[in-house]
Design brief:
This protein is an all-beta fold. It is built from no helices and 10 strands. The strands form 2 sheets. A 6-stranded mixed sheet has the order 2-10-9-4-5-6, with no helix packed on it. A 4-stranded antiparallel sheet has the order 1-3-8-7, with no helix packed on it.
Length: 113
Amino acid sequence: QVQLVESGGGLVQAGGSLTLSCAASGINFRLYTVGWYRQAPGKQRERVATITTLGSTNYVDSVKGRFTISRDNAKNTVYLRMNSLKPEDTAVYYCNGVGRDWWGQGTQVTVSS
């Protein structure tokens, strides 16, 4: 059974940083393109970053230059380093294999102004 567990969220002031972790079990995570997604209250979930099996990355324009996605295949974990956080980054953040249905519970990120 595939399980993804997100962690690392919290409350941070604008301009601050957080690093989110996505730990996978039940699969060899290195075989999949993985994305970080977020959903703010009243809004649709959006994908903010992806990393391929070869380590290529892609970002939505609103986080480019501020967020960095990475992976540690030995730990079966994908990370999202978030710098220069803004109040509009406030959301529940999830990870998932792109095109998969392995949604976890997510981790809340709240950025105060």
